[in-house]
TrEMBL record:
<keyword id="KW-0479">Metal-binding</keyword>
<feature type="region of interest" description="Disordered">
    <location>
        <begin position="1"/>
        <end position="20"/>
    </location>
</feature>
<dbReference type="InterPro" id="IPR001891">
    <property type="entry name" value="Malic_OxRdtase"/>
</dbReference>
<comment type="similarity">
    <text>Belongs to the malic enzymes family.</text>
</comment>
<dbReference type="InterPro" id="IPR037062">
    <property type="entry name" value="Malic_N_dom_sf"/>
</dbReference>
<keyword id="KW-0520">NAD</keyword>
<dbReference type="InterPro" id="IPR012302">
    <property type="entry name" value="Malic_NAD-bd"/>
</dbReference>
<feature type="domain" description="Malic enzyme N-terminal">
    <location>
        <begin position="73"/>
        <end position="253"/>
    </location>
</feature>
<dbReference type="Pfam" id="PF03949">
    <property type="entry name" value="Malic_M"/>
</dbReference>
<dbReference type="InterPro" id="IPR036291">
    <property type="entry name" value="NAD(P)-bd_dom_sf"/>
</dbReference>
<dbReference type="InterPro" id="IPR046346">
    <property type="entry name" value="Aminoacid_DH-like_N_sf"/>
</dbReference>
<feature type="compositionally biased region" description="Basic and acidic residues">
    <location>
        <begin position="7"/>
        <end position="18"/>
    </location>
</feature>
<dbReference type="Pfam" id="PF00390">
    <property type="entry name" value="malic"/>
</dbReference>
<protein>
    <submittedName>
        <fullName>NAD-dependent malic enzyme</fullName>
    </submittedName>
</protein>
<feature type="region of interest" description="Disordered">
    <location>
        <begin position="526"/>
        <end position="552"/>
    </location>
</feature>
<feature type="domain" description="Malic enzyme NAD-binding">
    <location>
        <begin position="263"/>
        <end position="523"/>
    </location>
</feature>
<dbReference type="InterPro" id="IPR012301">
    <property type="entry name" value="Malic_N_dom"/>
</dbReference>
Length: 552
């Protein structure tokens, strides 16, 4: 810092991690050279929070609210997090799904200030240099995307950056990761979205996506640079297209502290929600027939964890597999299909066993529901309305408490609306969605919230756990531990009429419980230094960053 900088001191006000804005006391203003730079009154953080919420409410649309909140984050991070923490349930849909989808779509149009790292293919020989230019020296968590499969809205190119930025703000809000130690990364390998390629304002590398070999080499170069610069960081992959998501995870999961949130986070939260649902239904998971609509990375990831959970409950691998059904756009995954990845093929049913189910060709979702006593129906297909009245009524005719999770994001992509599911099943369906929905109205005037089965219950807690425990890998058992701890926190376990997942007001406390369970599992798996449960609990508590103004 030069003398000149020290003299006028205005830089503190411009540093989003240090500024308190109008909350600097008169003494602090003198000390920091801020005298005269602020209006006289000294406000409390609570007053700033109240004022900011007034501003949020005054905006005309949710996109405007998103823009306002993102600008607040760039101006004063502690205030931003205090604002979110003051009303998590209202804030989440604004900084996360569904509004973040609009933020990604219109990324170039609403651009304000840079945040994070843009690693672009034309700069491929200078990735290390770019990484060294990061503003934050120490980093606990990176979220990286290439923008190719953003939520359920496809290829958003550079606009995908909205997702790492949004997810990392939840790592901080819910998982207590210090915002100064988070790094959003966008790998810009082009876009195949014609609207973006034609958009004069598009801010990414205006080019079709690069070929497969170049892509693999680019990702490898990125990982190598991260390993050199930030060897202990948690590297979270987000919203990669299915053909890349699984191979990347497989390539790096034993080399780095890494996980894929769409595959593993979505699976853990779904399993957590199923715990409460199967308890209320009175039929354990091992006795359920489970159908997944959607064979992308998230859908297959959920089924993989469901299958493992059935095995944990005593089924053989084959018995478990026989109870798992995956249907994609073409129909049921069957052994005679030649378009399946290895991960998908593991769930293929013998074509001979299902011969004649489909009218012509492969059995569709309706055919599977017709022939199998389906107790659990999950959607990660982005096919809006795919859980039709006929399908749902058929299911509800067979089982007392159908468990139905339309999980596709954002809201418009959901396979069904909770109010319709409720209607078609006379209130018997046990429902969870991926994006937020309004509560269900009961005849007695009561409103029942719909559980939001979104990976936001899991990834912040995993980040907190690996940071607190100094873990070096994310094992499958750690993700199952996360699911178990979330499931144990289900309000439905003690009240069958309660939602399947904890309310947002409790999510930070639940994240501590999940983090502790994950940290213990990391130690048990030998991927974190030995520590007692008490030490881990302490470490989780000490790691958690809180949005408050300390002195100075
Ligand atoms: O971001 C969300 O809401 C959940 C998620 O990972 C996805 O849909 O890709
Ligand atoms: Mg995602």
């Amino acid at each position: 810092m030069s003398d000149e900088d020290e003299g006028h001191g205005g830089h503190v006000l411009d540093d989003p991690l240090r500024t308190k804005g109008t909350s600097f006391t008169h003494d602090e203003r003198r000390e920091l050279g801020l005298l005269g730079l602020l209006p006289y009154a000294v406000t409390t953080l609570d007053e700033q929070v109240a004022r900011s919420w007034g501003e949020v409410r005054r905006q005309a649309t949710d996109l405007d609210r998103y823009i306002y909140l993102r600008a607040l984050q760039d101006r004063n991070e502690r205030l931003f997090y205090a604002v979110l923490a003051a009303d998590v349930s209202t804030a989440l849909p604004l900084v996360y799904t569904p509004t973040v989808a609009e933020g990604c779509r219109r990324f170039s149009e609403i651009w304000r200030r840079p945040r994070g790292l843009y690693l672009s293919w034309p700069d491929r020989d200078h990735l290390r240099e770019a990484l060294r230019n990061r503003r934050q020296r120490e980093v606990d968590v990176i979220v990286v995307t290439d923008g190719q499969r953003i939520l359920g809205i496809g290829d958003q190119g550079v606009g995908g950056m909205g997702i790492p930025v949004g997810k990392l703000s939840l790592y901080t809000l819910i998982g207590g990761i210090d915002p100064a130690r988070t790094l959003p990364v966008l790998l810009d390998t082009g876009t195949d979205n014609p609207t973006l390629l034609d958009d004069p304002f598009y801010l990414g590398w205006r080019h079709h996506r690069i070929g497969e070999d170049d892509y693999v080499a680019f990702v490898e170069a990125f990982v190598a640079a991260v390993q050199d610069e930030l060897p202990d960081v948690l590297l979270q992959w987000e919203d990669f297209a299915t053909p890349h998501a699984h191979p990347i995870l497989e390539r790096y999961r034993d080399r780095l502290l890494t996980f894929n949130d769409d595959i593993q986070g979505t699976a853990a939260v779904a399993l957590g929600a199923l715990r409460g649902a199967t308890e209320v239904a009175g039929v354990p998971l091992r006795d359920q027939q489970v159908v997944m609509l959607g064979a992308g990375s998230a859908g297959v990831g959920v089924m993989e964890m469901v299958r493992q959970a059935m095995v944990d409950q005593g089924l053989s691998a084959d018995e478990a597999r026989a109870r798992c059904w995956i249907v994609d756009v073409r129909g049921l995954l069957t052994t005679d299909r030649d378009d399946l990845s290895d991960a998908q093929r593991a769930f293929a049913h013998d074509s001979a066993d299902v011969a004649g189910w489909g009218v012509d060709g492969l059995p569709a979702l309706a055919d599977v529901v017709e022939h199998v006593e389906v107790g659990v129906l999950v959607g990660l297909s982005t096919a809006q309305g795919a859980f039709t009245e006929t399908i749902v009524r058929t299911m509800a005719g067979r089982v007392e408490r159908p468990i139905i999770f339309p999980l596709s994001n954002p809201t418009d992509n959901a396979e069904a609306r909770p109010a319709d599911l409720d209607d078609w099943t006379d209130g018997r369906a046990l429902i969870a969605t991926g994006s937020p929905f309004p509560p269900l109205h009961r005849d007695d005037g009561e409103d029942v919230p719909v559980a939001q089965c979104n990976n936001v219950y899991i990834f912040p807690a995993v980040g907190l756990a690996v940071t607190a425990a100094r873990a070096t890998r994310v094992t499958d058992a750690m993700m199952r531990a996360a699911a178990g701890a979330l499931g144990a926190a289900s309000p439905a376990l003690s009240d069958p009429h309660a939602p399947l997942l904890p309310p947002w007001a409790d999510v930070r406390r639940v994240a501590d419980d999940i983090a502790l369970a994950v940290a213990k599992q990391a130690v048990a798996d030998g991927v974190a230094p030995a520590a007692s449960d008490d030490d881990l609990r302490d470490s989780v508590r000490r790691t958690r960053w809180e949005p408050t103004y300390g002195p100075g």
